[in-house]
Amino acid sequence: MAVRTAAAGLGLWALVHTLRSGLAQPGVALAFGTLIAVGELTRHGATGARAPEECVRAPLGAAAALAYALLGEVAGVPAAHGPAQTLVVVGVAGLAGTVRRPGPGPACDPLVRHLLTCGLASVCGHPLYAAGLLSCWAGPLVLFGPPALAALCDAALAALFVRARTGRPYGALLGRELRASGGIGPAVGATGAVIALATAVAGLWALPVFSLPLLLTQFALRRFAAARATCRQTIASLARATEIAGYTPPGHARRVAALSRAVGGELGLREPELDLLEYAALMHDIGQLSLVDPVPSGATAPLPPAEQRRIALLGGAVVRRTGVPAEVAVIVERQADPYHEQPVTARVVRTVNAYEDWVGQAGGAPGALERLRAAGGREFAPEVVAALARVLARDGRTA
User: Fold this and answer.
1) CB 229 within 8 A of CB 223
2) Rounded distance, CA 263 to CA 391, Å?
3) What is the pLDDT of residues 23-77, one digit of tens each?
């Protein structure tokens, strides 16, 4: 991708420039570089599950890199580094994040985002600081303007990388990234600006003092990721009960869950909604365990509407006893309702389940899609069928 090439070229220029001019204030560079590296390393969890977006973003490392980019003084002494040295320190320390990294995508993507966003903040912040605007009415703009601009740049780059990897619409991806950064993003920007300001007054002692709250937040996010991974593993184990009992084909629930999450993302659902959708899709057939006679091949789509609703209500009753969020049970219960009465998540589960039931009977994916389109407007939401078609086309299943 051109963005990665540009970032590599920018990093190489910064390295050559810094080697020629020499490393200014090595102690300061080492202190900030160490903090950035620690932040990158602490974002890695051992859960092996999908980590929260805030955890993937390494808030401590991002705040430290931003603080170094905005640093104007160190204990009253003017900071001698410029944008080039900022890129070198951020790049070298950020390499720690490429060793072991959660989440999809090339390992260099977080580093590319760090380099470009910190370079932008440094280029915008240093001239304003040098002009003495910090002590006048424009002080808040100097402190928080570059971090806000860097956050927007980071969200735009993250959406661009996902777009290149998945082919999903850029506008929806950008909106998702902006929403994801709306939680921890302001804290990262504010912490970076405060660290830069505190270092100007108190020196390098400000780094551990003002980094501690964000470090504690980082560990809290990891604990949350571990708890969410445990919840998902429990739900996945429960979902396999229908397969073990012979009520549904092997892998059916996992396929419906994965495809439902992709369709939900295509429709612009937020991350918490996608989690609930995935849990419900994993457990959408669990009501079949209450049946005396198994449904042939476990396919509920061909059943009469009344029977579908009965199985869905039985499934919802089971889900309510598992301790998962009540919203999951609602989705399971309403998956067989008329689509115009359903929430979006239930529409997705209904459509994807029908696709999976029909894909082996109607001439593969193209035949199943045609059958969905033919029933669209009566049984299935047309916008969900269209989103499913786009997801399948990107995966090459309809070719």
Assistant:
1) no
2) 7
3) 888 999 999 989 888 888 876 543 444 444 444 457 888 888 888 888 888 888 8
CA distance 157 to 183: 18
**Interhelix angle for 26-42 vs 83-94, to 10°?**
40
Average pLDDT, the chain: 80
- pLDDT of amino acid 98: 66
Which amino acid would we find at residue 319? V
What's the distance, Cα to Cα, between the start and end of the chain in Å? Answer: 26
Say what the pLDDT of residue 223 is.
82
Contacts of residue 317, Cβ cutoff 8 Å, sequence gap at least 6: 287, 329
Between 196 and 97, the more confident residue is: 196
Kindly report the backbone phi and psi dihedral angles of residue 52, in degrees, each rounded to the nearest multiple of 5, phi listed first. Answer: -60, 150
Q: Which of 340, 357, 350, 335 is nearest to 385 (CA)?
A: 350
CB distance 118 to 90 below 8 Å: yes
Average pLDDT of span 242-261: 87
Which helix H or strand E contains 54, and what residues bound it?
A: helix 53-56
Three-state DSSP class for residue 380? strand
Q: Are strands 73-74 and 77-78 parallel, antiparallel or unpaired?
A: antiparallel
Burial environment of residue 106 by CB neighbours within 10 A (0 to 12, 13 to 18, 19 or more): middle
Nearest to 151 by CA among 181, 131, 175: 181
Nearest Cα residue to 326 out of 256, 276, 274: 276
Tokens standing for residue 114: 């760090």
**Paired residues of 73 in beta bridges:** 78
Single pTM value for the model:
0.68
List, for residues 317-371, the tens digit of each pLDDT value: 888 888 788 899 999 999 888 888 889 999 999 999 989 888 876 567 788 888 8
For residues 60 and 42, the answer to whether their CB atoms sit within 8 Å is: yes
Report CA dihedral (214, 215, 221, 227) to the nearest 10 degrees. Answer: -150
